[in-house]
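Title: Comparing notes on inverse folding

I've been comparing how different people in this forum approach sequence design from structure. To keep things fair, I'm posting one structure and asking everyone to reply with a full sequence. Here's the target:
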């Protein structure tokens, strides 16, 4: 029953449904994923984010 509230990706409204009743777009969980300091994929996620944003990319 936890984490049932969702947020619309387009209009930013909160709902309990998978599709926003206002604009009809998909919704996703309004809560961040759980954090673990022993995350085996954290390094890869951070590296991908840096590459996509162009931060710290060596040329």
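Reply #1:
Here's my take.
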């Amino acid at each position: 029953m936890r984490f049932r509230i969702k947020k619309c990706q387009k209009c930013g409204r909160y709902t309990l449904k998978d599709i926003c009743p206002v604009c009809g777009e998909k919704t996703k969980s309004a809560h961040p994923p759980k954090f673990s300091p022993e995350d085996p994929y954290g390094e890869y996620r951070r590296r991908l984010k840096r590459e996509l944003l162009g931060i710290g990319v060596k040329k």
